[in-house]
Amino acid sequence: MVSRLTYWTILIGLSLFLCCVIVPGFRGAAIHALIVLPLVVGVMNGIELIIAKRSVSGVLLLASVAVLIGSVLLRSRN
Amino acid sequence: MPNDWLPGIEIGLIAFAAGTFGAMVGLGGGLLLIPSLITIFSIDEYSARFAGLAAVCATSLSGSLVYIRQGVTDMSAAGLLQLPATIGAVIGARIGENAHPNVMRVVFSIVLIYTAWRLIANSPTASAAEPAKSRMMFAWSACCLGGMLSAFLGVGGGVVFAPVLTLVMNLPARAAAATSTYLISLTAAGSALLFYRHLRAEAIPSVVMPAVIGILLGAQLGAVLSGKVDAKVLKRVLSVGVILAAASLIWKAASHG
Q1: Which of B75, B196, B197 is closest, CB to CB, to A49?
Q2: pLDDT above 70 coverage of chain B, percent
Q3: Among B67, B68, B98, B181, which would you mutate to test the A interface (most chain A Cβ atoms within 10 Å of its Cβ)?
Q4: Contact between chains at B89 and A46 (C-beta distance less than 8 A)
Q5: What is the ipTM of this complex?
Q6: How far is it, in rounded angstroms, from Cα B45 to Cα B37?
Q7: Which residue does chain B place closest to A39, by CA atoms?
C-alpha cells in the first residue's frame, strides 16, 4: 500500500468519530472531530508525499492546510 | 418516543435516501440533501450548508479509505490540485457569508440543472491534445472554481473535480473518482470550519448529526446496490428528481424575494 500513514489516520479518526457518536454526551465533539480530521489527514499525507520524494505535491498539500488554518484563525480574530 | 426526536429522524431518513441514491450514481449526497433541508424542513441556509459539508467529510473519508486501500487514489494529483481548491473554498465561504440566501438558491439550482444534464449525457473521455502547462493552469482554475462552489453551496465539488481529473489530468475514470473523493474531504472541512461561527448550537444534534449518520449509512447501501440496478434508468429517474429539486429552490427564491 502506497499511503499507509494516510490510511491509518483516516481509519483511526473515523473510528474515534463513530465511538463519539455512540456516547450521547460526545455527539457535539464527534462533529468537531469529523471536521478537523481531513486537516490532520492532509498534514499526514503531505509528510508522506515529501518522504516519498513527491515534494511538490507534499508541500502544496501542506500549504493548503496552512491556508485553511490561517483563514480560520484570521476570521475568528475579526 | 419524544416528539422533538421526530424531525431528527425525518432528516436522517431523507439523508439516508440522498446518500443511497447519490452513491448509486456517483454523486455526493449533499446535492440532494441540501435542497430537501431548505425546502421541506425550512432549515436556514447556514445550517443546511454546514450539515451538507459535514456529511461530505464523512462520506469522502470513508470512501477514500476503500480507494486508498485499493491503491486507486492518485495522491500526487490530489496534492497538486488541493491548494487552488482550498483557496477557492476560502473565497467561496467569504462570498457565501455576504450573499443573500436567494443568490445561493439560484446558483444551487443552476448547478443542479447542470448535474441533471451530466447524469443524462455520456461520461467524458480523456484527451491530451493541449500542452501540459496550459492544461495545468486550466486544472488549477477549474479546481479553484470547484472549491468556491463547494464552500458557497455546501456540497463536495466532485461535480467539478472529477471531470477535471479525467479530462485535464488524464486520469482513468475510476482513479479520477477516487482522487476527487479524497480531494473534496479537505475542501469540505475547510468550508465547514469557515461557516462554523454562523452555526446555531442546537443545529448540531437536531440537523447535522442525523444528516451525517443518514448519508454515511445511505452511501454504504448505495455502494452495495450500485452494481445491481440498471444505471441508465436510475440516472434518468434521478435527473428528474434533481430538476424537481432545482425547481423547488427557484420557487422558494421567488416566493421569498
Answers
A1: B75
A2: 88
A3: B68
A4: no
A5: 0.90
A6: 9
A7: B186
Cβ-based interface (< 8 Å): residues of A facing B: 1-3, 6-7, 10-11, 13-14, 17, 21, 27-28, 30-31, 34-39, 41-42, 45-46, 48-49, 54, 56-58, 60-61, 63-65, 67-68, 71-72, 75-76
Count how many domains chain A has: 1
Question: Does any CB of chain A come closer than 8 Å to the CB of residue B120?
Answer: no
**What gap in Å lies between CA B142 and CA B146, rounded to an integer?**
6
Q: Tell me, what's the pLDDT at A46?
A: 92
Is B91's Cβ below 8 Å from some Cβ in A? no
Closest residue to B83, CB basis, from A27, A48, A60: A60
User: Taken in order B98, B102, B106, B108, is the CA torsion positive or negative?
Assistant: positive
* pLDDT confidence band for B1 (50 / 70 / 90): very low
- For testing the chain A interface, which of B169, B182, B193, B204 should be mutated: the one with the most A CBs within 10 Å? B193
Per domain, the residue ranges of chain B are 3-255
Q: Which cell is B202 given?
A: 442546537
Domain extent for A19: 4-77
Residues near B247 by beta carbon (within 8 Å), at least 6 away in sequence: B109
**Strand positions, DSSP E, chain B:** none
In contact, B210 and B9? CB cutoff 8 Å = yes
Q: Which helix (H) or strand (E) holds B212?
A: helix B209-225
Write the pLDDT tens digit of every residue in B213-240.
888 888 888 777 766 777 677 777 777 7
Q: Which DSSP symbol is given to B118?
A: H
Cβ-based contacts of B189 with chain A (< 8 Å): 35-39, 68
Span B155-175, average pLDDT: 79
> What pLDDT is attached to residue B56?
86
Q: In this predicted structure, what is the pLDDT of residue A8? A: 93
Q: Cβ separation of B58 and A17 shorter than 8 Å?
A: yes
